[in-house]
Amino acid sequence: MKTIKFGIIGCGLMGREFASAAARWCHLLQPSARPEIVAICDKNTDLFDWYRHNFPLIAMLTTDYKELLANDSVEAIYCAVPHSLHKEIYIDVIRAGKHLLGEKPFGIDKEANKAILNEIEKHPNILVRSSSEFPFFPGAQRVFQVIKKNEFGKIIEVNAGFLHSSDINPNKAINWKRLIDINGEYGCLGDLGLHVLHLPLRVGWMPVRVHAQLSNLITKRPDGKSNMVDCETWDNAILNCDVETEDGQAFPMTLKTFRIAPGEIDTWYIKIKGTRKSISYSTKYPKTLMTMDYEPGAPQEWRREDLGYETVFPCITGSIFEFGFTDAILQMWAAFVEELTTSCPGKFGCATPEETQLSHVVFTAALESHRDKKVVGTLPSSVGNMMGYPDEKQD
Q1: Is 391's pLDDT higher than 60?
Q2: Does CATH place domain 134-318+350-377 in 2.130.10.10?
């Protein structure tokens, strides 16, 4: 089996998740290639011990990412760093000729994202994708398949979101996600938004208009030095969107990204209502898919279906067992590695650079909408052309 040698830039929470996925690659049935972690980089050397203990093949541990990029044995990079570093490091990774799976939002703002995409265009042989694991849950994939079959009749509305309660404690110390110069003005949108938009954008549901309601609920937090300091970024966001599809449908789509959602530790969901069929899935109840098929005169009843271990990339786990977050991470990484080696024909893949660009258009429109208290169009000519919209539909 082909081996792809990886380096990790950013060895914290998500770096360890990738490393763990690589360690359990045998869970996949007949993958075309496997990742091998040979180099890691982080400014915090205290993180290195866990990698040393669990991955003896790592030959380079460095605090300088450029030293890692100069390592000829490294073929591909996973990069998980604060948003303010995306532009510089992602561009350097691409210029170094390394394939890249980077974290969202793929640039601290729209201009940074544009610079990254411009560099990608100069290196067509480099595969670049963004992390977004939740659409790999079996329930999300079932929703994706139903959308592709176009069974809804006329779509009435779409609701999607990603809800945390991680910041509900007002005594939680401030971190970089509360600071505009590191996280960016998007706040929770930059951190969570691509998770919510990945599936809608994949099926062509790009918002054409956005009205945003943004909330900074906890305005000060302790800094760990007995001081209270300003929280500068948005905690919660509600985006009320209009969608117009290529087949002539128009419907409202409500997107939520909450870091303060009581009772929600980590919930991703999507719900689509149509005149003939409706479907709903949430990771809060990961085994449950809800559907409603409606015929004139028939009862309007939700049907609950237990889901098993149904994956995009087959695994050794029996179909009767339950799927979880670490399985979604493994599936996302399988998609990236398979695309590197086989292009994954017919398979659901990782979020693309173009999808990150569209997400930045939506997030930037959301900031403008909230600031000016107005509805903002999202389809200048360049974005409209990407989505296949003719000029007459553009603002």
Answers
A1: no
A2: no
